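Priority: low. Protein: Putative RNA-binding protein, YhbY family. Input follows.
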Amino acid sequence: MLDITSEQRRALRARAHGLNPVVSIAQNGLSESVMREIARSLDSHELIKIRVYNDLREEREAYLKAICDQLDAAPVQHIGKLLVVWRPATEETAPTKARPAARRARAEPRRSKRSFQN
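Result:
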């Protein structure tokens, strides 16, 4: 489990405020496929929200601890049924920025509606 300072936690909570949950944990609990999806989301976003459809706070806390232990992430916040988790990107997991596609040169200029009337 990654340790973060209270200042880092406060800044991460502020960044996570506007995020929507990207992973949901439902009736099957913390399955292997859910863990893979959380790892994939952390690789691409670093900071994610996870919604847990469970009424027991102890189980949600156990999910948060298991996620952070297995994926080497830091628990940022557990509020209600939302878990906020952060893992910094490494060089090998950092998403690459896609270059914008080059624009093609047009062979002839566009014609306006008026030019079709003649």
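The radius of gyration is 22 Å. The chain has one domain: 6-88.
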